[in-house]
Write a structure and sequence with these properties.
mainly alpha, 7 helices, globular, two-stranded parallel ribbon
Length: 145
Amino acid sequence: MDIGGCWEVLASNSAAARYYAQSSTVRKGEVGSKSDMAKVPFGDILRLVQQGDAKACRTLDQMAHYLGVGIAMLVTGLAPDVLVVVGEVTRAWERVGPIVDDTVKRLSFTGATTRILPTNPEAEPRLRGTIALVLQKHFGAPFIA
């Protein structure tokens, strides 16, 4: 499946919900129809993956592929030493991580050795606050007396 759009359209939690809905064979209007399934929270998809649901696994794999495509562009353009991934997707990193790594290796032609690290979901709120403080310090509006 090759679709166009920004990274969020292809590699976000809402993209995963859309992939899950698009893989449905239920007719419109029935319980479990695409319109009904598009409302499936990403956390539910992750639970289904843990239970071995094939459709949820394919959904997460597709999201992971596009996450890798976007990260490959960052690695190619910026060559960072470390790239930190935050969000609910890190709860399934044991499945997502290898797909992301493989995609980045295939698509990044710079030879950069960027480490891609998931955050700990429990520590994520603190990390986001820390990142906001660092960004504000370095990129915030200048202080004018």
